[in-house]
Amino acid sequence: MPPTTPQHGGDDGERFAEVVVVRHGETSWNAPRIVQGQMNPELNETGRQQAVVVARRLSAEAKPADVYSSDLKRAAETAQAIAKACDVSNVVLTEELRERHMGHLQGMKWDDAFVQNPGAFKGFNIFEPKGGLNFNDRDQEIPGGGESLLNQLTQQCVTYLNKIAQQHIGERVIVVSHGAAIVELCRHTDPPGSSVHRNFPNTSLNVFHVSGVTRQWALARFSDVGHLDGKGALEDAFDGNGVSA
After folding, report:
1. At what angle do helices 73-85 and 45-59 cross, to 10 degrees?
2. pLDDT of 76-133, one tens digit each?
3. What letter would DSSP give residue 120?
4. Hey, CA dihedral for 109, 191, 145, 36, is it positive or negative?
5. Whole-prediction pTM
6. 8-state DSSP, 33
7. Which residues are identified as catalytic?
8. Which residues pair with residue 159 across a beta bridge?
9. Cα dihedral across residues 24, 28, 30, 31: positive or negative
């Protein structure tokens, strides 16, 4: 692939940052559908294998300028594997990329949580949005110290990603985060109810282009798990030999 100049929105020459957002690998809580929130389980063996595979894929693409991650163990372990494979010396860990705090629901199975506390789920289903979703309830906090989607999680994640992007215009960076956080980042690029808001499997890749001029976001790729089913590497906006334009 020949070198390319980072552009956004056509041939106007506008420069952007390419932000590759990766969901962490699997934990022992994922398969039984236990609400993790900001609880801190480690990757299980499957998750560690997933981290190795996604790291191998990303190492074959343009070298990232930096790797950022939630400081929760499942994300940090995934990020460390990626950084090592991509020859990035340090992972920037931050609370700003954490999963949504799920209050009293943390540690419960999703099915049990719906039955025992249906009021906490009014207006949303973060992994499988349904038609007729009431987005006016997105500012609702979950009982027990939980966060709202709109007023807390979205603002926190979007603000931090904007900060990262403006530091890396013309470069590629990798960010490791969590399911609900990634859903909110995708919602930032599209109107509510868009078909893009679907399932985001463990170690799926989601690629955002953030303009250095307008700061507008474009979602270039979402929920990409080609590395898990034998497909080829992600086509990125930068030179495939590891040098960012």
Report:
1. 40
2. 999 999 999 999 999 999 999 988 766 767 777 877 776 776 665 554 444 344 444 3
3. G
4. positive
5. 0.77
6. T
7. 24, 99
8. none
9. positive
